[in-house]
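Help: read this over?
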Amino acid sequence: MSSPSTTSSPALSERSAKHWFEQEVHPHGGQLKSWLSGSFPGVRSEVDDVVQESYLKIWKRQAVQPIASAKAFLFIAARNIAIDWLRRGRRSPIDLYADPDLGRAVVDDAPNAIEILSMHERYQLLVQAVAALPPRCREVVLWHKFRGLSQREVATKLQISERTVEVHVRNAVRHCETFLRGQGVCSLRD
């Protein structure tokens, strides 16, 4: 049979371990979080997890062998855990679960070869449509739509009224749309 002192001993050691943790380890938590955030920017969002893992590591170590300096052990453990987290992050830097929009952001929006060829063909059709415009109408459209001059600037440059510029632009746009539809292009944006 076991003596009463033996049965109460584990309860006392658990109580003393808890007291040790509350007195020697837990008070450094805020400072540890601050230090981790400043020293390891890559784990800022995981600082609480790194601290908890550090607490677990020091708790397990203290159960096996007494720790001379809880603060030093805690900071070293946290540093090692943060470095491990960063290493894991380098191997797999994308966490699609953390940010579901990230997958969409990674997709390359640059046009592929087929899209470039298609844009080039549409551009050539647009050039043909503009070339088919009457000379004065073509001149107005080139200054306004392709060189970016305002209707007022085109009117001044060509010494015609703004209303005439407006009519030429509207007629040119209609002509180009009709020409492009005839070529099977519904819109320059399609």
